[in-house]
Amino acid sequence: MESVIRYDWTVEEIKQIMEMPFLDLLYKAQTVHRENFPANEVQISALLSIKTGSCPEDCKYCPQSAHYSTGVQKEKLLSYETIMQKAACAKRSGATRFCMGAAWRNPKDRDIDFIVEVIRGVKSLGLETCMTLGMLTDSQTQRLAEAGLDYYNHNLDTSPEFYENIITTRSYEDRLETIKSLRRHHIKICCGGILGMGESRDDRASFLRQLAIINPHPESVPINMLVKVKGTPLESAPDLDPFEFIRVVATARIIMPDSVIRLSAGREKMSEEMQAWAFMAGASSIFYGTKLLTTPNSAETRDDSLLKKLGIRGTPAAAASDEEDLRIIFEKIHEGAHDDQAEHHGCFRLE
Ligand code: SF4
User: Fold this and answer.
1) What is this structure's pTM?
2) Fewer Cβ close by (within 10 Å): the C or N end of the chain?
3) Would you state the pLDDT for residue 89?
4) For 132-137, what is the mean pLDDT?
5) Which pLDDT value is given to residue 299?
6) Distance between CA atoms of residues 208 and 257, nearest Å
7) Which one-letter DSSP state was computed for residue 88?
8) Is 347 one of the annotated active-site residues of the chain?
9) Is 191 among the residues known to form the active site?
10) How many angstroms separate the CA atoms of 95 and 89, rounded?
Protein backbone atom coordinates (compact mmCIF):
# COMPACT_ATOMS: atom_id res chain seq x y z
CA MET A 1 0.00 0.00 0.00
CA GLU A 2 1.41 3.37 -1.05
CA SER A 3 1.52 6.02 1.66
CA VAL A 4 -0.74 8.94 0.87
CA ILE A 5 0.79 12.42 1.06
CA ARG A 6 -1.67 14.93 2.50
CA TYR A 7 -1.43 18.59 3.42
CA ASP A 8 -4.86 18.99 4.99
CA TRP A 9 -4.39 17.27 8.34
CA THR A 10 -6.47 18.48 11.26
CA VAL A 11 -5.28 18.54 14.85
CA GLU A 12 -8.04 16.08 15.74
CA GLU A 13 -6.92 13.55 13.11
CA ILE A 14 -3.31 13.86 14.26
CA LYS A 15 -4.32 13.34 17.87
CA GLN A 16 -6.24 10.22 16.93
CA ILE A 17 -3.10 8.77 15.37
CA MET A 18 -1.00 9.80 18.35
CA GLU A 19 -3.43 8.07 20.72
CA MET A 20 -3.53 4.71 18.94
CA PRO A 21 -2.52 1.69 21.04
CA PHE A 22 1.24 2.03 21.32
CA LEU A 23 2.20 -1.12 19.43
CA ASP A 24 -0.33 -0.46 16.64
CA LEU A 25 1.15 3.01 16.29
CA LEU A 26 4.68 1.68 16.03
CA TYR A 27 3.67 -1.03 13.60
CA LYS A 28 1.97 1.50 11.34
CA ALA A 29 4.87 3.95 11.58
CA GLN A 30 7.42 1.26 10.68
CA THR A 31 5.22 0.09 7.80
CA VAL A 32 5.02 3.63 6.39
CA HIS A 33 8.75 3.98 6.92
CA ARG A 34 9.56 0.87 4.91
CA GLU A 35 7.30 1.96 2.06
CA ASN A 36 9.41 5.07 1.69
CA PHE A 37 12.92 4.38 2.98
CA PRO A 38 15.38 1.49 3.15
CA ALA A 39 14.94 -0.54 6.32
CA ASN A 40 17.69 -0.56 8.94
CA GLU A 41 19.47 2.52 7.67
CA VAL A 42 20.17 5.88 9.31
CA GLN A 43 21.51 9.02 7.72
CA ILE A 44 24.27 10.61 9.76
CA SER A 45 24.74 14.36 10.00
CA ALA A 46 27.30 16.40 11.91
CA LEU A 47 26.61 19.80 13.42
CA LEU A 48 29.07 22.61 14.07
CA SER A 49 28.46 25.93 15.77
CA ILE A 50 30.24 28.44 13.52
CA LYS A 51 29.31 31.43 15.68
CA THR A 52 28.47 30.82 19.32
CA GLY A 53 26.60 32.71 22.00
CA SER A 54 25.25 36.21 22.64
CA CYS A 55 22.12 35.69 20.55
CA PRO A 56 19.58 38.51 20.88
CA GLU A 57 16.62 36.09 20.73
CA ASP A 58 15.07 34.84 24.00
CA CYS A 59 14.32 31.18 23.22
CA LYS A 60 13.75 29.84 26.73
CA TYR A 61 15.52 26.54 26.07
CA CYS A 62 18.67 28.00 24.59
CA PRO A 63 22.00 28.38 26.39
CA GLN A 64 23.19 30.74 23.64
CA SER A 65 20.58 33.41 24.32
CA ALA A 66 22.08 36.64 25.66
CA HIS A 67 19.02 36.90 27.95
CA TYR A 68 20.25 34.10 30.27
CA SER A 69 23.41 33.36 32.25
CA THR A 70 24.39 29.86 31.24
CA GLY A 71 28.17 30.11 31.12
CA VAL A 72 28.31 29.73 27.33
CA GLN A 73 31.21 31.86 26.15
CA LYS A 74 30.66 34.12 23.18
CA GLU A 75 32.84 33.13 20.23
CA LYS A 76 33.40 35.03 17.01
CA LEU A 77 32.62 33.53 13.63
CA LEU A 78 34.99 30.63 12.93
CA SER A 79 37.51 30.98 10.14
CA TYR A 80 37.03 29.32 6.76
CA GLU A 81 39.99 27.01 7.45
CA THR A 82 38.59 25.84 10.78
CA ILE A 83 35.18 25.11 9.32
CA MET A 84 36.69 23.18 6.43
CA GLN A 85 38.86 21.16 8.75
CA LYS A 86 35.89 20.23 10.95
CA ALA A 87 33.87 19.34 7.86
CA ALA A 88 36.63 17.05 6.62
CA CYS A 89 36.73 15.37 10.03
CA ALA A 90 32.96 14.91 9.98
CA LYS A 91 33.27 13.26 6.59
CA ARG A 92 35.90 10.90 7.93
CA SER A 93 33.60 10.01 10.83
CA GLY A 94 30.94 8.85 8.36
CA ALA A 95 28.72 11.96 8.15
CA THR A 96 27.06 12.66 4.80
CA ARG A 97 25.70 16.08 5.72
CA PHE A 98 27.46 18.94 7.48
CA CYS A 99 25.19 21.34 9.34
CA MET A 100 26.46 24.72 10.46
CA GLY A 101 24.71 26.94 12.97
CA ALA A 102 25.23 30.60 13.87
CA ALA A 103 23.59 32.20 16.89
CA TRP A 104 22.08 35.11 15.00
CA ARG A 105 18.57 36.52 14.87
CA ASN A 106 19.32 36.91 11.18
CA PRO A 107 22.53 37.20 9.16
CA LYS A 108 23.62 40.60 7.86
CA ASP A 109 24.05 40.92 4.12
CA ARG A 110 27.82 41.22 4.59
CA ASP A 111 27.88 37.80 6.34
CA ILE A 112 26.39 36.12 3.30
CA ASP A 113 29.60 36.48 1.18
CA PHE A 114 31.48 34.40 3.74
CA ILE A 115 28.65 31.89 4.10
CA VAL A 116 28.56 31.41 0.32
CA GLU A 117 32.29 30.67 0.32
CA VAL A 118 31.82 28.13 3.13
CA ILE A 119 28.93 26.39 1.35
CA ARG A 120 31.03 25.98 -1.79
CA GLY A 121 34.01 24.69 0.21
CA VAL A 122 32.05 22.12 2.23
CA LYS A 123 30.26 20.88 -0.87
CA SER A 124 33.62 20.35 -2.57
CA LEU A 125 34.33 17.69 0.10
CA GLY A 126 31.37 15.69 -1.16
CA LEU A 127 29.18 16.60 1.82
CA GLU A 128 25.65 17.90 1.73
CA THR A 129 25.42 21.32 3.35
CA CYS A 130 22.90 22.64 5.85
CA MET A 131 22.88 26.09 7.46
CA THR A 132 20.91 27.50 10.36
CA LEU A 133 21.44 31.25 10.60
CA GLY A 134 18.09 32.60 11.76
CA MET A 135 15.59 34.49 9.68
CA LEU A 136 16.46 35.29 6.06
CA THR A 137 15.38 37.95 3.63
CA ASP A 138 14.31 36.71 0.24
CA SER A 139 17.46 38.05 -1.43
CA GLN A 140 19.65 36.28 1.15
CA THR A 141 17.80 33.03 0.50
CA GLN A 142 18.40 33.49 -3.21
CA ARG A 143 22.15 33.88 -2.67
CA LEU A 144 22.30 30.73 -0.55
CA ALA A 145 20.37 28.84 -3.23
CA GLU A 146 22.76 30.08 -5.93
CA ALA A 147 25.70 28.85 -3.83
CA GLY A 148 24.12 25.39 -3.88
CA LEU A 149 23.02 25.15 -0.23
CA ASP A 150 21.21 21.83 0.14
CA TYR A 151 19.26 22.34 3.38
CA TYR A 152 18.30 25.18 5.66
CA ASN A 153 17.25 24.44 9.22
CA HIS A 154 14.54 26.65 10.62
CA ASN A 155 12.55 25.06 13.43
CA LEU A 156 9.01 25.96 14.39
CA ASP A 157 9.86 24.65 17.87
CA THR A 158 6.29 24.10 19.13
CA SER A 159 2.63 24.86 18.40
CA PRO A 160 1.49 28.37 17.44
CA GLU A 161 -0.66 28.37 20.59
CA PHE A 162 2.27 27.63 22.94
CA TYR A 163 4.91 29.64 21.07
CA GLU A 164 4.81 32.85 23.12
CA ASN A 165 5.53 30.84 26.28
CA ILE A 166 8.87 29.94 24.73
CA ILE A 167 9.92 32.87 22.53
CA THR A 168 8.79 36.49 22.60
CA THR A 169 11.39 38.19 20.40
CA ARG A 170 9.92 36.88 17.15
CA SER A 171 6.58 35.52 16.01
CA TYR A 172 5.44 32.23 14.54
CA GLU A 173 4.59 34.15 11.40
CA ASP A 174 8.23 35.33 11.14
CA ARG A 175 9.31 31.68 11.07
CA LEU A 176 6.77 30.75 8.45
CA GLU A 177 7.91 33.64 6.23
CA THR A 178 11.49 32.32 6.09
CA ILE A 179 10.15 28.84 5.35
CA LYS A 180 8.11 30.21 2.45
CA SER A 181 11.18 32.01 1.11
CA LEU A 182 13.20 28.74 1.27
CA ARG A 183 10.48 26.95 -0.67
CA ARG A 184 10.42 29.72 -3.30
CA HIS A 185 14.15 29.21 -3.89
CA HIS A 186 14.02 25.41 -3.80
CA ILE A 187 16.28 24.94 -0.78
CA LYS A 188 15.39 21.78 1.10
CA ILE A 189 13.86 22.47 4.49
CA CYS A 190 14.89 21.01 7.82
CA CYS A 191 12.13 21.99 10.23
CA GLY A 192 11.01 20.48 13.50
CA GLY A 193 10.77 21.28 17.16
CA ILE A 194 11.41 20.46 20.78
CA LEU A 195 9.31 18.31 23.10
CA GLY A 196 9.24 18.50 26.88
CA MET A 197 8.99 22.29 27.24
CA GLY A 198 5.74 22.06 29.23
CA GLU A 199 3.48 21.87 26.18
CA SER A 200 0.30 19.77 26.19
CA ARG A 201 -0.55 16.84 23.92
CA ASP A 202 -2.83 19.22 21.99
CA ASP A 203 0.19 21.47 21.44
CA ARG A 204 2.23 18.54 20.20
CA ALA A 205 -0.52 17.62 17.73
CA SER A 206 -0.90 21.24 16.64
CA PHE A 207 2.89 21.55 16.16
CA LEU A 208 2.91 18.42 13.97
CA ARG A 209 0.01 19.82 11.97
CA GLN A 210 1.97 22.99 11.23
CA LEU A 211 4.74 20.86 9.75
CA ALA A 212 2.36 18.62 7.84
CA ILE A 213 0.53 21.49 6.13
CA ILE A 214 3.78 22.81 4.60
CA ASN A 215 3.49 21.86 0.93
CA PRO A 216 5.68 19.98 0.10
CA HIS A 217 6.51 18.67 3.58
CA PRO A 218 9.90 19.57 5.06
CA GLU A 219 12.46 17.11 3.70
CA SER A 220 13.94 16.74 7.17
CA VAL A 221 12.03 16.88 10.47
CA PRO A 222 14.20 17.03 13.60
CA ILE A 223 12.40 16.00 16.78
CA ASN A 224 14.32 17.14 19.84
CA MET A 225 13.87 16.28 23.50
CA LEU A 226 14.50 19.34 25.65
CA VAL A 227 18.03 19.48 27.03
CA LYS A 228 17.59 21.27 30.35
CA VAL A 229 20.43 23.74 30.62
CA LYS A 230 21.16 25.45 33.94
CA GLY A 231 20.50 29.15 33.73
CA THR A 232 17.74 28.89 31.13
CA PRO A 233 14.10 29.37 32.17
CA LEU A 234 13.43 25.73 31.29
CA GLU A 235 16.18 24.27 33.47
CA SER A 236 13.60 22.65 35.77
CA ALA A 237 10.92 21.71 33.23
CA PRO A 238 9.23 18.41 34.19
CA ASP A 239 10.46 15.32 32.34
CA LEU A 240 8.41 14.20 29.36
CA ASP A 241 7.29 10.56 29.42
CA PRO A 242 9.54 8.74 26.90
CA PHE A 243 6.48 6.95 25.47
CA GLU A 244 4.94 10.32 24.62
CA PHE A 245 8.13 11.29 22.82
CA ILE A 246 8.04 8.06 20.78
CA ARG A 247 4.36 8.65 19.98
CA VAL A 248 5.24 12.02 18.45
CA VAL A 249 8.08 10.51 16.38
CA ALA A 250 5.75 7.78 15.09
CA THR A 251 2.98 10.24 14.29
CA ALA A 252 5.40 12.50 12.40
CA ARG A 253 6.52 9.43 10.43
CA ILE A 254 2.93 8.57 9.49
CA ILE A 255 1.67 12.02 8.51
CA MET A 256 4.82 13.04 6.57
CA PRO A 257 5.67 9.74 4.88
CA ASP A 258 8.54 10.91 2.70
CA SER A 259 10.24 13.23 5.20
CA VAL A 260 13.31 12.04 7.05
CA ILE A 261 12.57 12.14 10.78
CA ARG A 262 15.68 12.99 12.77
CA LEU A 263 16.27 12.01 16.35
CA SER A 264 18.09 15.16 17.44
CA ALA A 265 18.95 16.86 20.73
CA GLY A 266 18.37 14.99 23.95
CA ARG A 267 19.74 11.66 22.69
CA GLU A 268 22.54 11.79 25.22
CA LYS A 269 20.04 11.24 28.03
CA MET A 270 18.01 8.59 26.17
CA SER A 271 18.55 4.95 26.95
CA GLU A 272 19.56 2.62 24.14
CA GLU A 273 16.13 1.04 24.39
CA MET A 274 14.39 4.38 23.93
CA GLN A 275 16.50 5.17 20.87
CA ALA A 276 15.70 1.73 19.46
CA TRP A 277 11.97 2.49 19.89
CA ALA A 278 12.50 5.81 18.11
CA PHE A 279 14.11 3.99 15.15
CA MET A 280 11.20 1.54 15.18
CA ALA A 281 8.86 4.55 15.15
CA GLY A 282 10.51 5.73 11.93
CA ALA A 283 13.36 8.01 12.97
CA SER A 284 16.15 7.46 10.46
CA SER A 285 18.65 10.23 10.97
CA ILE A 286 20.93 11.23 13.84
CA PHE A 287 23.62 13.74 14.62
CA TYR A 288 27.09 12.40 15.19
CA GLY A 289 29.56 14.18 17.45
CA THR A 290 30.05 14.82 21.12
CA LYS A 291 28.31 18.21 21.05
CA LEU A 292 25.22 19.66 19.39
CA LEU A 293 26.10 23.35 19.10
CA THR A 294 26.76 23.89 22.81
CA THR A 295 24.95 20.98 24.49
CA PRO A 296 26.30 17.43 24.94
CA ASN A 297 25.38 14.76 22.40
CA SER A 298 25.66 11.00 22.47
CA ALA A 299 29.29 9.87 22.18
CA GLU A 300 30.21 8.50 18.75
CA THR A 301 31.49 5.26 20.28
CA ARG A 302 28.14 4.78 22.05
CA ASP A 303 26.35 5.38 18.73
CA ASP A 304 28.58 2.95 16.87
CA SER A 305 27.92 0.30 19.48
CA LEU A 306 24.15 0.89 19.46
CA LEU A 307 23.84 0.85 15.67
CA LYS A 308 25.88 -2.35 15.60
CA LYS A 309 23.67 -3.98 18.22
CA LEU A 310 20.57 -3.04 16.22
CA GLY A 311 22.02 -4.04 12.84
CA ILE A 312 21.52 -0.51 11.50
CA ARG A 313 23.95 0.91 8.95
CA GLY A 314 24.73 4.50 7.97
CA THR A 315 23.38 5.77 4.65
CA PRO A 316 26.22 5.70 2.12
CA ALA A 317 27.50 9.13 1.03
CA ALA A 318 26.03 10.27 -2.28
CA ALA A 319 29.23 11.84 -3.51
CA ALA A 320 32.14 10.70 -1.44
CA SER A 321 35.62 12.16 -1.68
CA ASP A 322 38.12 9.39 -1.08
CA GLU A 323 40.87 9.39 1.53
CA GLU A 324 43.38 10.81 -0.96
CA ASP A 325 41.06 13.76 -1.68
CA LEU A 326 40.71 14.37 2.03
CA ARG A 327 44.49 14.23 2.53
CA ILE A 328 44.97 16.86 -0.16
CA ILE A 329 42.25 19.01 1.36
CA PHE A 330 43.91 18.81 4.78
CA GLU A 331 47.23 19.87 3.24
CA LYS A 332 45.62 22.81 1.49
CA ILE A 333 43.87 23.88 4.67
CA HIS A 334 47.15 23.65 6.56
CA GLU A 335 48.99 25.75 3.97
CA GLY A 336 46.24 28.36 4.05
CA ALA A 337 45.84 28.40 7.83
CA HIS A 338 46.58 31.84 9.15
CA ASP A 339 44.91 31.91 12.53
CA ASP A 340 45.35 29.93 15.67
CA GLN A 341 41.93 28.28 15.40
CA ALA A 342 43.23 26.24 12.47
CA GLU A 343 46.54 25.20 13.95
CA HIS A 344 45.54 21.56 14.45
CA HIS A 345 46.50 19.73 11.32
CA GLY A 346 45.17 16.37 12.40
CA CYS A 347 41.57 15.23 12.57
CA PHE A 348 40.03 16.02 15.93
CA ARG A 349 36.65 15.13 17.24
CA LEU A 350 33.75 17.35 16.40
CA GLU A 351 32.76 19.79 19.08
S1 SF4 B 1 17.74 28.91 19.54
FE2 SF4 B 1 18.84 30.05 17.97
S3 SF4 B 1 17.68 31.95 17.78
FE4 SF4 B 1 17.05 31.04 19.74
S5 SF4 B 1 18.43 31.99 21.26
FE6 SF4 B 1 19.37 30.07 20.59
S7 SF4 B 1 20.78 30.64 18.96
FE8 SF4 B 1 19.34 32.34 19.23
Assistant:
1) 0.83
2) N
3) 86
4) 94
5) 61
6) 13
7) H
8) no
9) no
10) 9
